[in-house]
Amino acid sequence: MTIRSMLLAGAAAVLMTAGGAGAKTLVYCSEASPEGFDPAPYTSGTTFDASSHPVYDQLVEFKPGTTEIEPGLAESWDVSEDGLTYTFHLRQGVKFHSVDGFSPTRDFNADDVIFSFDRQGNKDNPYYEYAPGVSYEYYAGMDMPTIIKSIEKVDDYTVKFTLSEPNAPFLADMAMDFASIISKEYADKLAAEDRKADINNVPVGTGPFEFVAYQKDAVIRYKANPDYFKGKAPIDDLIFAITPDPAVRMQKLQAGECQIMPYPAPADLEALKSDPNITVGEQPGLNVAYFAYNTTQKPFDDPKVRKALNMSINKQAIIDAVFQGAGQVAKNPIPPTMWSYNDAIQDDPYDPEAAKKMLDEAGVKDLEMNIWAMPVQRPYMPNARRTAELMQADLAKVGVKANIVSYEWGEYLSKSKDPNRDGAVILGWTGDNGDPDNFLAVLLGCSAAESGANRAFWCDKDFDDLITKARQTSDMAERTKLYEQAQVVFKEQAPWDTIAHSTVFMPMSNKVTGYVMSPLGGHDFYGVDISE
Amino acid sequence: MIRFILGKILWLIPTLVGITIVAFGFVRVLPGDPVLLMAGERGLTPERHAELTHQLGFDRPIWEQYFDFLWKVLHGNLGDSLVTHKPVLNEFLALFPATVELGLCAMVLAVAIGVPVGVMAAIKRGSWFDQATMTTALVGYSMPIFWWGLLLIILFSGILKWTPVSGRISLMYYFPNGSGFMIWDALMSGQKGALTSALSHLILPSVVLATIPLAVIARQTRSAMLEVLGEDYVRTARAKGMPPRRVIGIHALRNAMIPVITTIGLQVGMLMAGAILTETIFSWPGIGKWMVDSISRRDYPSVQGGLLMIAAIVMVVNLIVDLLYGLINPRIRHR
């Protein structure tokens, strides 16, 4: 590149990013680099924050700040009586973004919808494995290959999904990141030019922001999509400044180098809250940390023993010491922000004396058990080792000798799935789509007990009947009732000790207005404005 | 001299082959399965696990995987990352300039301060200057880098507001198709303030990264100088009435530089280690941070490709150091 052309490029870039006088730029100090810009092959929130949230839309979307479904690229939809067909009526006149080397010649239509799903489920689709190692884990993980029987184009603006059995959470699944709609025209062009992998480098969507550039591990730039179907975003430019260390993110926020940041260090919260220029947003996370017994082994097959152990563990002490207050004690397996949360349930009280008595009654003496502690920090669990140590001390008080074991993370996940596992496991879950089925069936259902995702290997017929019925019913009130009952059964049977739901904090400059925290944990900047 | 250089270069070949084995083996010796890590809590069925393992080729015999890796390396292909699905070589080259820029600045800082301080301390042995600098060097050598970096950020960026907190340049500057060397790109862009911005972003990370090498170099220079100053030829030079400046500058320093240059060469390897922490604190998009992320995700191709590249570069630097001996010391050159 000559000096002259570099000068021109530089000048153009300044014009583009600064956008002339009065352009509004929001800088977000993000916590890590995205793995790519195609959301479908990935499962991490960091990647979704940089891909599906700014750039893409889905057929249906989560209403900001809630887990309720609202129209997205589909203006409306019909569900057949038997719950087996979902017909989506698509929005007309929606434009895809233009990027270097691609300008759309047509509006969004049914072909894009069909392509976006077909590539994930059909091995013959040219984009099924468009780069070495690409696979669609979320699509598979949400059981889409079994649930979706067929997808048909009725006309250019109508798409019909036929399911293999009634599945009420399906609509919420369609709002998830893997269900983002990508441009078939763009994909075809890339395929013709033999650069399919670019779909993961330069995304083309219909969303509120257009991708501009990514400097690896440093900066991602977006500009507002002027043709966005809900109207142009109030800000003109959106910049992600990738800042892995939480203490440094805080310094950047305080110095004005960015206006909003996720995941502050718990120790810094006091300082952030007392800074007059900073507001700290706060919301319970859509997650749960749990302690799963192996309910197939003696003496943990006895609900009384499990309850006694639950009563011997001081959960509030864990919240205070490990979560440093950034969490709340969990009594149900689903978090309180989720619909159908049964607040009438009473948690088993912390009562070592009573616990000891219950263990004696159950004939348990000199019990020795393993506590499995995860080796990594997760959104629902800041420090599993420390939690295990507190539990160990609590259990000692009721005469139970506990040993703490741990493995490398991948191994931990696979070994803890072994039905012959010795001991109880600390683990957790972050919700995908706000549907209770995504917690109760995935973590506690009978088929999950077989696959091992149900770490308690707990298969209770009453519970499983309730959640299966709820999954197949589309009436919301009816479903709520069924899930509330299921939580009662769960509490009686106590396959887990429900430890905590963590709290999510979002510090931002006072200049930022209109930021709505998502209970699903993602970060969206459409609708955010910044005052000078 | 040419034979000397050729001999050194020929030795690189078996060493590099050895490194491919170590790089390939290292990440596979670590417990952990990249496929399981990819799926996380969500998990995957045993069938899906087998399918993915097969798709990635990890079910083949280990020697077959190794020779496949070696064959690709010989063709300039380091494979594709399991995470980003991009060629590892491209990823490396995109991040490498940032590490070089920071490493060079830190090295210049460490040598420019470390050598004169070491020389002065040796000449004024036992003085307050000697004692003060050597105590400081000891502290610097034992400094926990993460803490030190954060401390400097809080002081200079947070309280005094003299330097930016992190990053490579202010976000208002952006050079698509730049070389990746920010100082150079800023200079070439001709934009007002760009160079100043790039330089001000370099100060704190360079100081942090230079801290340990600076301490090592200062101490090494001092002890090498002390040794040389006690040699017969220095005494002779002094006895024949040579001005002290010349004695130190020509006779002593030149001879003392040989162990110092060795140390400097070895510090290049140390810089890579220091870069891991420094890059994380200062959000510096370089190789160190990338390697750590790749290891924690068991991204086999990135780890083995990255290690191979880093090892090759460190070897080339050490080769240059070896050749520098020849320039300084004729005895090595003519051997």
TrEMBL record, chain A:
Signal in keyword set: yes
Record key words, sorted: Signal
Signal peptide: 1-23
InterPro entries assigned to the protein according to its UniProt record, in alphabetical order: Peptide/Ni-bd (IPR030678), SBP_5 (IPR039424), SBP_5_dom (IPR000914)
Protein localization: Periplasm
Coiled-coil residue windows: none
Superkingdom per UniProt: Bacteria
Residue ranges of every copy of the Solute-binding protein family domain listed in the record: 68-449
Pfam families in the cross-refs: SBP_bac_5
Family, similarity comment: Belongs to the bacterial solute-binding protein 5 family.
Protein name as it appears in the record: ABC transporter substrate-binding protein
Organism this protein belongs to: Thioclava marina
UniProtKB/TrEMBL annotation, chain B:
Keywords on record: Cell membrane, Membrane, Transmembrane, Transmembrane helix, Transport
A Pfam family recorded for this sequence: BPD_transp_1_N
Compartment(s) where it occurs, according to its Swiss-Prot or TrEMBL record: Cell membrane
Transmembrane intervals: 9-30, 92-123, 135-160, 198-218, 264-287, 307-328
Domain ABC transmembrane type-1: 96-325
Membrane topology type: Multi-pass membrane protein
Family in the record: Belongs to the binding-protein-dependent transport system permease family.
This protein's name: Peptide ABC transporter permease
Source organism of the structure: Thioclava marina
